[in-house]
Design a protein that fits this description.
Chain lengths: 352, 248
C-alpha cells in the first residue's frame, strides 16, 4: 500500500475517516524531525533491523530463529512463515524499523505473517525513527490453534499509516497491543476476522499524545463463527492541542452465536485544547451473544493530585503517577513481562 | 510550634474562617471540637495548602516559617501532615507505590537518601503491622475498596511512615469501631514527641479518652469560641454546642 492508496480510501470511506483528515494532516507534517536512531538493545532475542524499509541482515541477529522462517525479497515484501508445531518460536522476535538521512519520502513495507496450525509466534515491532511517512501493510494468517502475540511501539516522529488484517482460524488466538507516542500522525487500522469456532482476539493499546499530534486507532473485529471471543482495551492520554481517535467496530455475523465481545476506550484529557473522539459500533446479526462496549473521557482527579502533593510529591510527580495509573489497566493485559516493562518505561518517559 | 493569628479564609465568596487564633507549642496535642459546618475541615485544608481556599487575612507560622507562603508539597516537606476526613481513592496506584513515592519525596526534601525497594518494603511492612493493616492491603490500590475504618487506618499508616512534625487529624475517629479506634489512638500516641504538634479534630470526646489532649478548643461559626483543658471535652459531650451561637 502507498500514501496514495490511503488517500483514496479516505475519499471512499468518508465515515471511517470522519475524524482524521488525512490530506490536511499530511500537509502539516513537520519538515524535519530529530532522528532517534538509538537502536541499542539488550538481550539475545532474534532481532531483525530494517533501515528505510530495507532489511539489513548485517545489523540483524537471527539467534534461534528456526529455519522455517523465510524472508522474502523487497518486491513482494517480507514473509514470516511458520509451519506446524515443529517450529514453535519460543523466544520473542523483534523487528526494528529505523531510517537515516537517505530515507525516501515514503517508506512502504509489506509484512506477511503466517503461523501454521498449533504454531506460536511472539513478535515486537519497534518503529524507532522515520522522518518521513511509513506505510505499513501487515497480513496475518493464523491457522487452527495458532497463537500470535503481536506488540507494536510506534515512536517514530513522522507519519505512520498502517493497516493490519488478521484471519484467525478455529481455536486460534491473535493478541495485539500497540503503543503510539511521539508521531505527527498515526492511523493504525486493525481488522480481524475470527473465522473458526473458538477463535479469540485481544486488541489493546495506548496513545500518548501532546503538541499537535494526531493518532487514530481504528479496529474492526468480525465474529464470523460461533463461540469466539474478542476483548479490546484502549487508553488514550492527551495533552496540548493533540487529537485522539478511537473507532472500534464489532460485527457479529448471523451464525456467530455465543459470541463474547468486549470493548473499552478510555481517554484522559490533560488540556482543555486536546480532543478525543471515540466511536464504538456494534453490528449484531446473531441473537445469542454477549457484547458490551464502553467509552469514557475524563480529566485528572484534582483531589487525587492534592492528596499526593500533601504527601510530598510535587505536581509533576503527582500527575505522572496518575497518568501511569490510568494506563496501568492496559499494561496488565500484556502477558509478556519483559514487554510490559518496556511499555511501562515508555509511558514513564512520556509522563515525566 | 504552630502559631495561627487572625486567620480568615474563604471558599469563593463565602467566608468560612473568621479570625482563628491558635497556638500549639511543640510536643502538645490540641483537640478541636465543634458543630458540623463550623469550619474544622476548612482549617485543616487551609493549613495543608489545598487549592480553592483563599486566605484573606492573618498568618500561620510553623517552626519559624511562613506556612502560607509555601505550596502543598513544600508544607509536606516542612512536616505538615493532614489525615483527611475523606481519604481519596486512587485507582491504579498501589498503596505500596504511593507510600514509597511519598516517603522518598519527603526523605529527599530532608536531604536524606532515598530508600531502595528492599529497605522500603521492610519499613512499610513493619509500620503496616503496627497499624493493623495486612500486607495484602499494601498491594491494593490506594483506598479503593477499603472500608471506612481501613481508610482511616491507612491515613495513620502514612503518618507513621512519613513522621511529620505537625499532625492534623480530621475526624480520624469517625466510622471506627472501638478496636480500630484503639489501634488508631495507639498509632497516634506512638508518634507523640517533644518535637511534634498535633491537632485532633473530633466530634466525640470518646477519642480523647485514648488520645489525651493538652488543650481543647471549640470552633463554631468560623472562630475559636472557647478553650480549656481536657475537661472541656466532657462538658461539651454533656451540653452540646447550643451555647455557641453565631453572635457570641
Ligand atoms: N467546596 C465548598 N464550597 C462551598 N462551601 C463549602 C465547601 N466546602 C465546605 N463549604 C462550607 O464551609 C463550611 C465549613 O465546612 P467544613 O470546614 O467542612 O466544616 P466542618 O469540618 O466543621 O464540618 C460549611 O458551611 C460548608 O458548607
Ligand atoms: Mg469536617
Amino acid at each position: 500500500m502507498s500514501v496514495a492508496n490511503f488517500i483514496n480510501r479516505s475519499h471512499q470511506d468518508k465515515e471511517g475517516w470522519k475524524y482524521t483528515d488525512l490530506e490536511a494532516l499530511l500537509k502539516t507534517a513537520p519538515a524535519s524531525i530529530a532522528m532517534n536512531n538509538n537502536i541499542a538493545d539488550t538481550g539475545d532475542h532474534p532481532r531483525f533491523v530494517f533501515v528505510n524499509g530495507v532489511f539489513q541482515s548485517k545489523q540483524s541477529r537471527f539467534g534461534a530463529v528456526p529455519s522455517c522462517i523465510l524472508m522474502g525479497d523487497l518486491a513482494t515484501g517480507y514473509n514470516l512463515v511458520l509451519g506446524e508445531h515443529t517450529c514453535l518460536v519460543t523466544q520473542p522476535i523483534e523487528f526494528v524499523f529505523t531510517a537515516d538521512e537517505n530515507a525516501p519520502n515514503e517508506i512502504n513495507i509489506k509484512l506477511t505473517i503466517e503461523v501454521g496450525a498449533n504454531g506460536r509466534l511472539t513478535l515486537l515491532e519497534n518503529h524507532l525513527a522515520s522522518p518521513t511517512i511509513t506505510v505499513l501493510e501487515t497480513e496475518i494468517i493464523l491457522h487452527a490453534s495458532a497463537k500470535f502475540v503481536h506488540g507494536k511501539i510506534i515512536h517514530s516522529g513522522g507519519t505512520h499509516l498502517a493497516r493490519s488484517t488478521a484471519q484467525v482460524a478455529r481455536g486460534g488466538y491473535y493478541n495485539n497491543f500497540t503503543l503510539i507516542r511521539g508521531t505527527h500522525l498515526t492511523r493504525n487500522e486493525i481488522d480481524v476476522v475470527l473465522q473458526g469456532e473458538e477463535a479469540q482476539a485481544a486488541l489493546n493499546g495506548t496513545m500518548l499524545l501532546r503538541g499537535t499530534e494526531h493518532a487514530d486507532t481504528t479496529t474492526r473485529i468480525t465474529h464470523a463463527a460461533p463461540h469466539c471471543a474478542s476483548r479490546q482495551i484502549y487508553k488514550t492520554v492527551l495533552d496540548g492541542k493533540s487529537r485522539g481517535v478511537f473507532q472500534g467496530k464489532i460485527i457479529v455475523a448471523k451464525d456467530a452465536q455465543k459470541t463474547d465481545g468486549y470493548q473499552l476506550s478510555r481517554a484522559l484529557l490533560l488540556s482543555d485544547q486536546a480532543e478525543m473522539d471515540a466511536k464504538p459500533e456494534l453490528e449484531i446479526y446473531a441473537d445469542d451473544v454477549k457484547c458490551s462496549h464502553g467509552s469514557t473521557i475524563g480529566d485528572l482527579d484534582e483531589q487525587a493530585i492534592f492528596y499526593l502533593r500533601s504527601r510530598g510529591l510535587n505536581e509533576a510527580q503527582a500527575r505522572a503517577l496518575l497518568i501511569e495509573a490510568f494506563v496501568a489497566e492496559m499494561l496488565e493485559e500484556i502477558q509478556i513481562e519483559a514487554w510490559r516493562d518496556i511499555f511501562r518505561a515508555e509511558i514513564e518517559r512520556w509522563a515525566q | 510550634m504552630l502559631e495561627i493569628k487572625n486567620l480568615h479564609a474563604a471558599i469563593g465568596n463565602k467566608e468560612i474562617l473568621k479570625g482563628i487564633d491558635l497556638t500549639i507549642p511543640s510536643g502538645e496535642v490540641h483537640a478541636i471540637m465543634g458543630p458540623n459546618g463550623s469550619g474544622k475541615s476548612t482549617l485543616s485544608y487551609v493549613l495543608a495548602g489545598r487549592a480553592g481556599y483563599d486566605v484573606t487575612q492573618g498568618s500561620v507560622i510553623f517552626n519559624g516559617k511562613d506556612l502560607l507562603a509555601l505550596n502543598t508539597e513544600e508544607r509536606a516537606a516542612t512536616g505538615v501532615f493532614l489525615a483527611m476526613q475523606y481519604p481519596v481513592e486512587i485507582p491504579g496506584v498501589t498503596n505500596m507505590m504511593f507510600l514509597k513515592s511519598a516517603l522518598n519525596a519527603i526523605r529527599k526534601s530532608r536531604g536524606e537518601s532515598e530508600l531502595d525497594a528492599m529497605q522500603m518494603l521492610k519499613v512499610l511492612r513493619g509500620k503496616a503491622k503496627e497499624i493493623g493493616l495486612s500486607e495484602e492491603m499494601l498491594k491494593r490500590a490506594v483506598n479503593v475498596g477499603f472500608s471506612g475504618g481501613e481508610k482511616k487506618r491507612n491515613e495513620i499508616l502514612q503518618m507513621a511512615v512519613l513522621e511529620p512534625l505537625l499532625c492534623l487529624l480530621d475526624e480520624t475517629d469517625s466510622g471506627l469501631d472501638i478496636d480500630a479506634l484503639k489501634i488508631v489512638a495507639d498509632g497516634v500516641n506512638a508518634l507523640r514527641s517533644p518535637a511534634r504538634s498535633m491537632i485532633v479534630i473530633t466530634h466525640y470526646q470518646r477519642l480523647l479518652d485514648y488520645i489525651k489532649p493538652d488543650r481543647v478548643h471549640v470552633l463554631a461559626f468560623g472562630k475559636i469560641r472557647k478553650s480549656g483543658g481536657a475537661e472541656l471535652a466532657h462538658e461539651l459531650e454533656a451540653k452540646g454546642y447550643a451555647d455557641f451561637t453565631e453572635a457570641a
